[in-house]
Amino acid sequence: MLWKVLLLLGLSSAWAQKLCSPGASDGYKVRLSINSALGDQAYVWNENEMFLFRATLAFAMRTYSDGQEYDVANVVVCDETPRVSFWFVVTSPLDASLLVDKRRVEEAVRKSRSRINSAFLLTDDTLEFIGIPPTLEAPVAPDTPPWLIAFGVVMGGVGAGIVVLLVSSVVQKIRKKRDGEEETGGKTENEAASDAIYNMSFSDDEPVTQM
Amino acid sequence: RQRDQSPLKWGSKTQYLLTCVGFCVGLGNVWRFPYLCQSHGGGAFMIPFIILLVFEGVPLLYLEFAIGQRLRSGSVGVWSSIHPYMTGVGIASMTVSFFVGMYYNTILAWVMWYFLNSFQSPLPWSQCPLNDNLTDLVSECKRSSPVDYFWYRETLNTSTSIEESGGLQWWMVLCLAAAWSVLYLCCIRGIETTGKVVYITSTLPYVVLTIFLIRGLTLKGSVEGIKFLFTPDLNELLNPSTWLDAGAQVFYSFSLGVGGLISFSSYNPVHNNCEQDAIIIAIINGFTSIFAATVIYTIIGFRATKQFDDCLNEYVNILMLLNAFDLVEGTVTEINYDEMLQNLNSTISGSEVIQGLDLSTCNLRTFLSDGVEGTGLAFIVFTEAITKMPISPLWSVLFFVMLFCLGLSTMFGAIEGVVVAIQDFKIFPTWPKEVISGIVCLSSFLIALIFSLGSGNYWLALFDSYAGSIPLLIIAFCEMVGVAYVYGIERFNKDIEFMIGHKPNIFWQAMWRVISPLIVLVIFLIYFVNEVSSTLTYITWNPSSENFPVLEILPYPNWVYIIILLLAGLPSLAIPGFALYKVLQKCCCKKTIKKLELNTVSANVNMYDTK
């Protein structure tokens, strides 16, 4: 009897190992960089930590996947290296020979990423799921782009300046016409606008321009 | 075609000098000269530069000042005074002014865009934006760099070739409108308004350059940059292209041939010492080039050193090795990095893996000589350096304000060249100057909308290469030949003696008669032969090309050659064309050409009482 149980256990674990292999189509590679993240406070990676990982992943599958009762045994791990990296696959709770689809695993990991990270005191960079990119923080985008505001200020100033200058030259012309008519009564001036300000009779000619 | 006897004049000599300095000192001093200096043997480049400044730049400058001051007219008026058949030179100047003004102001629109975007922290070109599903950075940006991406995608939204127009980019249209509006505001009444603005636009760049120099010298690596810039390599002097580039740089740097300088000097009193002015302006221009080059290279040195240090920080390489070989953390450190790399490389499988890893190698010189002229310098290299400095928005605002001032003061001369020519031709005799300036600005803006297309960058490079280069050389050559041989060097000497009290000495005689025209002719011929004998190509930004982010070189399509012919040929052919027209007019219509009174001493003695 005992040997039957042992055989079954052995077979099932061997079976499970066959499901999980590096490069498995429904599996993911995980890589941890504990020393770089924690330095002196780094903990040693051992069986217990691996158990925590499998439990955390089972939690993620339970909460964010189809609601079935995933257990630690459903998360199968293989190809551990000293780096620390390993592959894992997730089996279905109903049938241990069926693997859960890659996309469902990815979705679950994505949604619970921060929980998984904090369980190990790591971050998106130091606990990597190769093939599952982390959701990056969206930058705060203001409603009006700041450059449009600056543009409005500049154009407002320039527009005001143009209007002021044009109005002042029109006013000067009107004033000059009025003065011209009063004084000389009909002397027509050649109104090339460049001459609007400078009047020959009043300019003081210097032989050399003074600085 | 002399201007009416109620002249405009300068408010003060300072205004005149500042306007001329502003006109000559432009973007080329900041982003062309440093590159030429560095690539043609550093400190050794000063030798051809200064020699050609003296033999080519100053004589031409003096010539333009003198004829403007004597004949008291813009370029069209001056050339028709010298000889009616030479009016074409004035027309050519006006056309070139118009074309150059169009594309030059577009560069100012780009500067304006960067300026407007500098009022935020962090600067938008300091990091890549995220893609749509927020999983990663935008691929185009990741493969190149945030500054490249901001320039090519978010500013230009450039298409992949000149044939794909890509449609108008609305934000560029707005910036173009802003740039032309600012220009109109400053030029609205000609030198009345520009004369006031130049107090700021001509002096501010020097203030900003000094601030940057002080800031730059306190940054790590700045001295490396300066050493790289000025280390002389005398072998470069044997290379003819060094002399060619020096000659071209001196010529274009003085903005000769566009008629702006002639026009500005025409507002001077007739006895102003134009010889002194020419020498002063030339010295200031040369000094500014060298000063700007120093400042630019302190910042480039800083940037290169930063990149080199980041590259040397082998953390990234270490991580890649650890991951690739699944080694325990800590087996590869900065100390034993080289050893471990060698060990791993010694097995066949190991070396294969390592080759696939693309580990970075670091060389300070490569970083220093990285893409450093023209728009690439200002909008990619320098902006990147700014993001690494503390309080980046401040430096960014200062830098782009400086660039804007440099370009704006050059634009004043271009607009002056066009507006005064229109007035001289009396096309719209009764219209006030405000309206004519407005028409010029508006029409230039509308045509310049072509530069706000997706392919606008390529159009601008086209204009830059062909609208300004060949016609200006031809105009300058005709100017010197016209004054020395058509007008007569003796008459010209007498005019100068009347103006400043002594005849120009033997040095000037030799320059005007022989040496300067020869230099200009040689530059023109070499340039012309180069262009005509090679297939013309341009560089494009194509994210789907193989070597991305390296720019792809494409040949121009055939229809572009027609445009090049128009751009370069139209102004050049205006010179003989107009002469021909006058000849035909004389022969066919048997009309006596109204020979305009040459402004000899006797004709003008009643204008100004010599005291």
From TrEMBL, chain B:
Biological process according to GO: sodium ion transmembrane transport
GO cellular component, one term: brush border membrane
TM segment ranges: 16-33, 45-67, 88-116, 168-185, 197-217, 246-267, 279-300, 397-422, 434-454, 466-489, 510-529, 559-581
Membrane association type: Multi-pass membrane protein
UniProt keyword terms in alphabetical order: Glycoprotein, Membrane, Metal-binding, Sodium, Symport, Transmembrane, Transmembrane helix, Transport
Record-linked InterPro entries: Na/ntran_symport, Neutral_aa_SLC6, SNS_sf
Cell compartments where the protein resides: Membrane
Binding of Na(+), residues: G22, V25, N29, S253, N285, L406
Pfam families to which the protein is assigned, alphabetical: SNF
GO MF entry, a single one: metal ion binding
Keyword Cell cycle recorded: no
Family indicated by similarity: Belongs to the sodium:neurotransmitter symporter (SNF) (TC 2.A.22) family.
Record's protein name: Transporter
